[in-house]
Write a structure and sequence with these properties.
Distance between the termini: 32 Å
Order of helices and strands: HEEEEHHEH
Number of domains: 1
Strand order of the largest sheet: 3-4-5
Largest sheet: 3 strands, mixed
Number of helices: 4
Shape: globular
Structural class: alpha+beta
Helix content: 40-55%
Length: 110
């Protein structure tokens, strides 16, 4: 994933958040000890009562933006936050049905 694709994915999610009326925080900073990392996004109303963190597969693999996945997983577990990894390619174009399926699967908690 390059920076242009990252911006497209981010904008696709921003658009969906307006369509489906949910908060979309990007990037989302997490801290473990003295380390602070950016993750792709946080959705406070989905995944759990504490919200959810979204990571993108390729950014985790190449390490350019996200920390080691095990660190994100530990953060989520310690904070009662749901964690999901998604494939960015699915979000290079807006598809209403994809978002409906995802959001229903994750569940709205507020």
């Amino acid at each position: 994933m390059n920076n242009a694709e990252y911006e497209i994915v981010k904008n696709t999610w921003k658009y969906a958040s307006n369509v489906f009326k949910f908060d979309f925080i990007t990037p989302y900073k997490i801290s473990l000890g003295s380390n602070i990392f950016d993750t792709f996004a946080f959705l406070p109303q989905y995944g759990s009562y504490s919200g959810m963190v979204i990571c993108l597969f390729d950014f985790i693999k190449n390490g350019s933006i996200f920390p080691d996945y095990s660190l994100v997983k530990r953060y989520a577990k310690c904070n009662g936050i749901f964690l999901s990894q998604i494939c960015y390619k699915q979000f290079l174009e807006y598809d209403k049905e994809v978002f409906i399926e995802l959001l229903e699967d994750w569940g709205r908690f507020s």
